[in-house]
Amino acid sequence: MASTTSPEVSLEVLPYLRVLKDGTIDRIAGTQVFPAGLDPQTGVLSKDIVLIPETGVSARLYIPNNITKTDHKLPLIVYFHGGAFFISSAADPLYHNSLNMLVAEAKAIAVSVNYRLAPEHPLPTAYEDSWAALNWVFGGGEDGDLWVKEHVDFGRVFLVGDSAGANIAHHLALRVKASDADPKVKIAGIGLVHPYFWGEEPIGGEVTDLVRKSMVDKWWQFVCPSEKGGDDPLINPFGDGAPSIEGLACGKVLVLVAGKDILRDRGRLYYDELVKSSWRGRKEYTETEGEDHVFHIFNPNCEKAKSLIKHLASFINQD
């Protein structure tokens, strides 16, 4: 008779993941995958490609269908998915659907990066993988992809991400050195959707929402068990040791937040600090009232989600 004993759990990171006593990572969410290919609803074509063979870092590439002219270059969206750094992937059906919608609306090429996840690959692996992917985009050469080489306007490359992916986009834009005389990587702008920033000291709605404050504290401690906790420079852009946002090497920034999101006040703080700083790029901020974290991923067909995608597309195509 087969044993029905449940595996012993050493740690729960609810509602997404369990760590078993034997060290096995049991992901409860973000594990589904959807194949690349032609999306009949949007006409967007996608394919999977390995970017960095040494690490296995891959990406899902998207292109509007029926693109034939190579003399008409399109903007490029380098996209970083969310998932608190420990769940989901570029092949997640929810992200695949969202990228199809964004690429169709923006009439852009997209490279959705499949960075490696914690805890198997502790931070800063996700940042290093994403940086390697960004350098792959600009690397070109014989190893480049024809969709990117033939159709991308490299003067219009945007970093876009939601939640943890927005955090990554922020850090990569700081990593690019605007002071370089001839920078290899050039970023036109970053789109931060419900960005995953945090801090030890609660602000705004965090002060009274102790349950969700504790939950996010636990998520971050799980992927980055540093002494600084929520004030680690990776998660708190205004904590001790964090690089100044004045170093953002791009021409414009869009910050999108959701009114019911526990991360809402961190996104607002980021925008306010950017406005007060000496950074001279264009700054935009929009709050979607009555919605929660990454609602557009989970409910993509609601009108507010469609509006968010249109806003992102407009940001990408504005001069």
From TrEMBL:
Residues 77-296 form the Alpha/beta hydrolase fold-3 domain. GO terms for molecular function: hydrolase activity. InterPro entries: AB_hydrolase_3, AB_hydrolase_fold, Carboxylest/Gibb_receptor. Gene3D superfamilies: alpha/beta hydrolase (3.40.50.1820). It comes from the Eukaryota. Signal peptide: none annotated. SUPFAM superfamilies: alpha/beta-Hydrolases. It holds the Pfam family Abhydrolase_3. PANTHER family: ARYLACETAMIDE DEACETYLASE, CARBOXYLESTERASE 2-RELATED. Belongs to the 'GDXG' lipolytic enzyme family. This is PREDICTED: probable carboxylesterase. It comes from Prunus dulcis.
